[in-house]
Design brief:
The protein is mainly α. Helix 1 packs antiparallel against helix 9 and helix 1 runs parallel beside helix 17. The longest helix has 36 residues. The model has no long low-confidence stretch (mean pLDDT 87).
């Protein structure tokens, strides 16, 4: 795919504009210096629209756009369950988790673990998350984002890694979370517009004079099997999406971990000025998630008609981009870049937050706020430099890097959900029980993975996550009863916590549930 001069100009305008906007929103008041609250939590004053947009911008990156379009090409609409079930998960997070986090002024997830259980698990999980975010998340966004850029434009992949890393670092380095969150509304608007344009043009090309509606009807008529949302056991893709387990199994564990206890996601909501504002942002994000399959899955499904003989599924989205006229191609490519930059900037900001507040500030006490902000900026630079240097060595040898990442993080996800769910809602949960869940999750997942790799036991990844969660939960409860927590260990305050939500939030929740019932009823 080639970009014309006007496409490159549009891309350059995007880069300059988003950088300028980030610096403008990051400016300090006359004579003021940024505090750690300003830098890491955007002064705890994020509006709902910034929270909602930033949640989605942190979530969607180029490898997901291209990867999910490829899954739409191969599997069909069923892959949209990841997006649609996430919308319902967000509402649960907003109603039940956020009131406790905000009541206790939680800034980081390791901080919550210390206040709930003790310092040991805080330190263990802080180091774990730093290693995960730097060596898995940052490297994967750089590597897979560079592959996306190379696939679309032919631009040298190594140069793309450096360019992506440097730009994402530079535009948020001064302002921290505020620079990221307050520019994400532009990033998400560009992402949504670009995705809708490519989907509309692809369907219109299929439909001819009948337009996009006729194109969608053609997909329904010619590929009815691609609209099955719940796959049967005889489906070749049952291992990826194991039937009803999508609705009642391990997908819930993965979604709750990601949207509820993941620092670079939940940090936006923690920066809200009130619970109500955070919940409005969560509801906004939920509706954006309902829209995401149109943007990231539908183009891949359209390629079934327009490019039926692709050599690789991940070529579906770039191939559909080739349908775009000059100018629009640059806009959609800018949307792709926006997804990469916004997601990477979010990870880097959360790395600097955890490193500075959970590790550095615990060792270097009584340092100034300015000093903490400086350390945060240095940590951000370090994370990007490490990511650039290690992206190819770590991921270059994997043909399916994204699948490897999912498999790796799935070892830890069940234990993390157990630790937080018990910590939030069961007063007798102890640090010994939490550590048992964390260790047990890794060990049991490893056993299942080994059995799968050696062909002794074929078990869908999603079902494995669900089973490991149940076993880890039981183990944590038993150990907590046998080794109870110290009387003064629980420092999380639950007085004043209310799970009542506004009429607006409740109506938004009803809308999400009604939508899910409708789409699953139609395409079960």
């Amino acid at each position: 795919m080639k970009l014309a001069a006007i496409d490159l100009i549009i891309l350059a305008i995007y880069a300059v504009a988003i950088f300028a906007l980030a610096q403008w929103v990051s400016r300090d008041k006359s004579g003021a210096q940024k505090t750690s609250t300003d830098y890491f939590l955007a002064s705890k004053n994020l509006p709902w629209w910034a929270i909602g947009a930033s949640l989605i911008a942190a979530n969607i990156s180029a490898e997901q756009i291209i990867g999910m379009s490829g899954s739409g090409y191969v599997i069909g609409l069923a892959i949209a369950s990841y997006e649609w079930m996430a919308a319902l998960t967000l509402l649960i997070v907003g109603k039940f988790f956020l009131p406790i986090f905000l009541r206790n002024d939680i800034v980081t997830m390791p901080q919550f673990l210390q206040q709930r259980y003790g310092p040991t698990i805080r330190n263990v999980m802080a180091v774990f998350w730093l290693l995960l975010y730097v060596f898995v998340n940052v490297t994967s966004i750089l590597w897979l984002g560079a592959i996306a850029v190379h696939t679309v434009t032919g631009f040298n992949q190594d140069y793309a890694i450096v360019a992506i890393g440097v730009f994402a670092l530079a535009y948020q380095l001064w302002g921290g979370l505020k620079a990221v969150a307050l520019t994400d509304i532009v990033q998400v608007a560009l992402l949504v517009c670009g995705g809708l344009i490519i989907g509309f043009i692809a369907l219109s090309t299929i439909g001819g004079e009948g337009g996009a509606v006729a194109g969608f009807q053609t997909l329904l008529t010619d590929f009815p099997e691609k609209f099955d949302m719940i796959l049967s056991k005889d489906s070749p893709h049952y291992q990826e999406l194991p039937g009803i387990a999508v609705l009642i199994g391990g997908l819930w564990v993965m979604n709750i971990s990601y949207w509820g206890f993941n620092q670079y996601i939940i940090q936006r909501a923690l920066a809200a000025k009130s619970v109500g504002e955070a919940q409005r942002g969560i509801a906004f994000a939920a509706y954006l998630k309902l829209l995401m399959p149109v943007i990231v899955v539908l183009p891949g499904m359209a390629a079934l008609v327009l490019a039926p003989n692709l050599s690789a599924p991940d070529q579906a989205y770039p191939t559909m981009m080739n349908l775009l006229p000059v100018g629009l191609k640059g806009l959609v490519f800018a949307a792709l870049i926006a997804a990469i930059i916004a997601s990477l900037a979010s990870k880097v900001n959360s790395i600097s937050t955890i490193f500075t507040l959970d590790l550095y500030a615990k060792v270097k006490k009584d340092v100034s706020e300015h000093h903490l902000v400086t350390v945060g900026r240095i940590a951000a630079v370090g994370a990007v430099v490490i990511g650039i240097l290690t992206a190819r060595p770590l991921l270059g040898g994997f043909d399916q890097a994204f699948q490897f990442i999912q498999e790796f993080t799935g070892f830890f996800t069940p234990g993390i959900v157990v630790i937080f769910i018990l910590g939030l809602f069961w007063k007798r949960a102890s640090e010994a029980g939490a550590l048992t869940a964390a260790i047990g999750s890794v060990v049991l997942s490893g056993v299942f993975w080994w059995l799968q790799e050696t062909g002794q036991f074929i078990f869908p990844f999603m079902n494995r996550v669900g089973l490991v969660f149940v076993v880890s939960l039981i183990a944590a409860i038993v150990v907590s009863l046998l080794v109870p927590a110290k009387p003064d260990a629980m420092k999380i305050r639950l007085d004043g916590v209310s799970y009542r939500t506004t009429i607006g939030f409740n109506l938004a929740a009803v809308g999400v549930v009604a939508f899910l019932i409708l789409v699953y009823s139609i395409w079960w």
